[in-house]
Amino acid sequence: MRLGDALSLSTRMFKTRPLRTLLTILGVGVGIGTVLFLVSLGYGLQNAILSRITTADSLLALDVNPGTSDLIRLDNASLQKISQIEHVIEISPVITASAQISAKNLTGDGIMYAVNPSFFRLSGIETIFGEFFSGEKEIVISTAALQLINMEPKDSVGQEVNLTYFVPRINEDGIEEVTIFEDIAPYKIVGVVRDDLESVIFVPLSNVSDGGTDSYLETKVKVSDSAYMLDVRNKIMEMGFFVSALRDTIEQATKIFKVIQIILGLFGMVALIVSAIGMFNTMTVMLLERTNEIGIMRSIGVSKKDIKKLFLFESMLMGFLGGVGGIILGFIGGEIANFIMNLLAKNFGGQAIDLFESPLWFLLVILGSSAFIGFITGVFPARRAAKLNPLDALKYK
């Protein structure tokens, strides 16, 4: 039997039992669609979270801080030593202090980070409105800090606020003192970052370091290539500093998300197994209904191999079409869920994101798996059909 003849005969099921065939395909489609929907949720959550904190520069950056030790200080001398380590191409220190922000007769307490513009790039921080500062009297502020002074993020860019911040520093006697910076001239908000938990204000580092402060909370250290990160990390740790990397967090998060995807996929497999059982039942019923037809085909010279091939083609075709239908159902379900979630996020002042994403390779795996499931469910009926005695099959009513 030629391939074209086998395909032609396989499509007869749509003419003889169209409703049963379509319901079987729909059952497989629902199972495949459920798997796709749940696994796509896992991928979407992973991409939505990790894409916010990862950039090409941030993956090459190390976070260096003195830890809890009182004997280790991250000062200008330390920064100079770190910058001289081979393969270190950039450093971006951070000074932190408590701060008060005021505008329109409203005052709130927050955390001030004095940084260079490169800090945002090395941290993977992005603005949702405006841009990062480039001048002395410019700041970038978090959404939580804006709530303290009753400003909407989209309307805050270009507005002016007053800052007072309290910067600790070590004097000549080794005693910590607090320097109060209270600027009469207002700061201009040039950018807004999303952080609904912490009231954070980013100011230019020069605004604070010019006041004689020589003690940093941490510094970002960019390495020229990921191959040198471990070597640079070890050299900095030998100096007594605590070192971490965003890459470590990403690797741990990726492992966690893979487990989540597997768990979600297993839940979807339950529906897929049920639909596969339904498909097996359909193929068994088709065998009983076509027993007489099989006897006629065998009596005119059709081989056992061709009979087996015919049934396998039919089951694989139903499985493949079920996979196509499942991808369509899963995609529609994901788009509807994305629309509802983004609508709710917009109403509550959140940011729109895509919670459901499906990589192309996974869609191809879904299609291949659906055809394979069709093959597996068709093996037993196909073998039974091939073993039928032609004379007994002709007598079957």
Mind explaining what this structure looks like?
The chain is α+β, with helices and mostly antiparallel strands. The relative contact order is 0.19. The protein is built from 14 helices and eleven strands. Helix 3 (18-50) crosses helix 12 (304-347). The protein folds into two domains: 3-53 and 252-395, no CATH class; 73-239, no CATH class. The chain has helices at 3-10, 13-16, 18-50, 76-83, 118-123, 143-148, 153-156, 206-209, 229-238, 246-289, 291-299, 304-347, 360-387, 390-395; strands spanning 61-65, 88-103, 106-115, 127-130, 138-142, 160-170, 176-182, 187-193, 200-204, 218-223, 242-245. It is 54% helix and 20% strand. A six-stranded mixed β-barrel has the order 2-3-9-5-8-6.
Distance between the termini: 26 Å
**What's the SSE pattern?**
HHHEHEEHEEHHEEEEHEHEHHHHH
Q: Which descriptor suits the 3D outline?
A: elongated
- Give the % helix: 40-55%
In DSSP terms (H or I, runs of 4 or more residues), the helix count works out at 14
What is the total tally of β strands? 11
Q: How much strand?
A: 15-25%
Query: Rg to the nearest angstrom?
Result: 33 Å
Which strand order does the major sheet show?
A: 2-3-9-5-8-6
Number of domains: 2
Structural class: alpha+beta
Which consecutive residue ranges, at least 5 long each, have pLDDT under 50? none
Q: Main β-sheet: number of strands, strand sense, barrel status?
A: 6 strands, mixed, barrel
Question: Mean pLDDT, rounded to whole units?
Answer: 82
